[in-house]
Design goal:
- The chain folds into two domains: 63-234, no CATH class; 262-307.
- It is 40% helix and 13% strand.
- The protein has helices at 9-22, 40-50, 77-87, 89-92, 127-134, 218-249, 264-306; strands at residues 64-69, 110-115, 158-166, 175-177, 190-192, 200-208, 211-214.
- The strands form two sheets. A five-stranded antiparallel sheet has the order 2-1-3-6-7, with helices on one face.
- α2 runs parallel beside α6.
Length: 307
Amino acid sequence: MRGLPTPSPSFRKKKDRILQQLSIPDSEYSDASPKGSIDAGIRHLIDGINRLDGFVTTSSCAGRVSVFVEGKKAMDPEQQAQLDERYGQEQVALKPAQIAGVGGKGGGGSWLFVSHDPVTLEEGPNRADLDLLLGLRSTRVSGERQIGEDGSSENPETRLIHFKFEPMAGFRESGAINLTANTGESVTPIVAIRSMGLALESLIGMQTQGVPQRTVSAEYLETLLRIANERFVANTERIERFRLGVLEATQPPKKRDGTEWEDAQARRERKRAEGLRRKAELQKQELDTGQDGAYADSYMTLNADTT
């Protein structure tokens, strides 16, 4: 990997502030994630990246399985007035509400269950215990007439309940931003990396009048949890591969003969130093040879005078 430019003073200052926050004990640390702290399963990756000069990360999630109630968007006054005028205030309540986004928890949504580790399932688990674990009522409700063709709930008091497994991620999609800067400003690129192909999501229930109930069987919930547990294992393997990849990419590259790769400037400097060293060695050899010859001449002259 080609050497990175020297980090700007503003970057170093920001990194120092982030590292100070991350050094706080987990019992006192808090961030915007549902768990509120860095997952133990990703702590070694975070620490390894932050030890690299020119890098810093605050991503805290190593992957999670969750059950949550979907949120809904609030209507703006103009939209509300149009609906009131068109349908009447009594009928507006029967119109499908807008969800807060695919799988969104905003707009009054809430978490029922969150785990950043595989969920232990005993052989032949008690169904009531499984519902209790996931924050659901065991009573199965019929959702056929309560879910519209667009997948939204027709009753404004009804919200959909999702089961979701998300792999290691800090951003929605992979990509990079802040690659260029305005004149006179330093560039601080931000790179987002998301593990793809492991995500899992399924509708499992509905919340009506504040009561969360499942619309699927307990066996189906068990199957979802088992799949999520398998993907936790695969996700852990991906995290380790990513960690090793980052470390390898930030080390000086090596040539086929095992020696470290060097750019043109470094090679010129090395060749110059080697040339100066060889020149000094030759000068020393010539000096030593000259002194040895002088000693020999003196010895031979001395012997000639004494004979």
